[in-house]
Amino acid sequence: MNLENIVYKMLQNNLIPILAHPERYSFVQQTPQLIYDLVEEGVLMQANFGSIIGMYGKKAQIAVTKLLQSNLIHFLGSDVHRSSSIYTKIPEILQKLVRLIGTQRLEELTTLYPKQVLKNETIQIHMPKIPKYTIKEKLLMQF
C-alpha cells in the first residue's frame, strides 16, 4: 500500500495524517503493532463508534478495544453515510466507552482533540503502548 512513504512525505511537508478506522483493516487486526509504529512517527488515528459494539465484526471490536487501551486512538467518529445508521446506538456506545477508558479520556477523544485539530493546535497525546492480544484473540484474528 506504500503507506510508510505516504506518511513520510506528509510529515516532511508538516502535515499530520489522520488514519480513519484502523481497527477495520485486516492487516491491523492481525498486526496491531503497525498502528503503534505509525503513532510513534506522528500519525493520529480515528476509530468508529460502531466498532465499539461490534457493528463491523468481532475482529474490529477486539482491535478497537486494544487500540483504545493502548492510547492509540485519538478521535472517535460516526462513519455515518445514512442518518439512521448509528445515532440511535450512541448512548449504548458512550456507556461502554466510559467503562473502557473513563469519562476524561472519552471527552478528549470526542471533544478536546477534535477542537484542537480544527484550530490547527498541537494535540498532547497520551503515551502509546504496544497492543497485546491474548492467545484466544490472536487465534481469532488469524481466521
Which characteristics define this entry?
mainly alpha; 8 helices; 143 residues; single chain; TIM Barrel; 53% helix
Structure characterization notes:
With about 140 residues, the chain is mainly α. It has a single domain (about 5-140), classed as TIM Barrel, CATH 3.20.20.140. Helix content is about 55%, strand content about 10%. The chain has 8 helices and 3 strands. The protein has helices spanning about 5-10, 25-30, 35-40, 50, 60-70, 90-100, 105-120, 135-140, and strands spanning about 20, 45-50, 75. A 3-stranded parallel beta sheet has the order 1-2-3. Helix 6 packs across helix 7. The chain is globular.
Chart the SSEs and their pairings.
Blueprint (H helix, E strand, L loop, with lengths): L2 H10 L5 E3 L5 H5 L2 H9 L2 E5 H4 L5 H12 L5 E3 L12 H12 L1 H16 L16 H8 L1
Helix pairs in contact: 6-7
Bulk shape: globular
Given as residue ranges, the uncertain stretches (5+ residues, pLDDT < 50) are none
**Strand residue content:** 5-15%
Structural domain count: 1
- Treating each run of at least 4 consecutive H or I residues as one helix, how many helices? 8
Question: Biggest sheet, open or closed, and with what strands and sense?
Answer: 3 strands, parallel
What string gives the helices and strands in order?
A: HEHHEHHEHHH
- The CATH homologous superfamily: Metal-dependent hydrolases
The helicity comes to 40-55%
Distance N to C terminus = 22 Å
Structural class: mainly alpha
What's the Cα radius of gyration?
15 Å
**Overall pLDDT metric:** 93
- Would you count the extended β strands for me? 3
Q: What is the CATH T-level topology?
A: TIM Barrel
The CATH architecture assignment turns out to be Alpha-Beta Barrel
By CATH reckoning, the class would read: Alpha Beta
Biggest sheet strand order reads 1-2-3
